[in-house]
Design goal:
Layout (H helix, E strand, L loop, with lengths): L13 E4 L2 E5 H13 L2 H7 L4 H14 L5 E4 L7 E4 L1 H28 L2
Antiparallel strand pairs: 1-2, 3-4
Helix pairs in contact: 1-2, 1-4, 2-3
Length: 115
């Protein structure tokens, strides 16, 4: 067996409330795409998911969060849209910070295995 110096470690982080998945990489991506597109529909299209599924995910995140992560904006000339709130922005940043720390820790610990 050839020695492989480049072991890949892949971890997924999920936050739960009871048995319910509240936040994970896919939901963070959804928040980021809502932020970029200004709409749940646009974000859903980019992620190749149905609007219904994306809306359900947003509803679940908002339901289990102390503050809403996403809010709808009413009409006007441009027809309204959807925004990621300050709480949503903090969730995105905190998730990426935690993900980076966990990945760095996992890589460091894996090096100790020397397999």
């Amino acid at each position: 067996m050839a020695k492989n110096e480049n072991h890949n470690i892949k971890l997924r982080i999920w936050f739960y409330s009871g048995e319910n998945k509240v936040l994970g990489k896919g939901r963070i991506e959804l928040l980021e795409r809502i932020k970029d597109t200004g709409s749940i529909s646009g974000a859903a299209k980019q992620m190749k998911m149905s609007y219904r599924q994306a809306w359900q995910m947003v509803e679940e995140m908002n339901e289990f969060s102390k503050l809403p992560l996403v809010e709808k904006q009413l009409g006007g000339k441009s027809g309204g849209g959807t925004i990621v709130t300050e709480a949503g922005e903090r969730a995105i940043k905190a998730f990426h910070t935690l993900e980076n720390k966990v990945n760095a820790f996992a890589i460091k610990e894996a090096e100790k295995l020397k397999f």
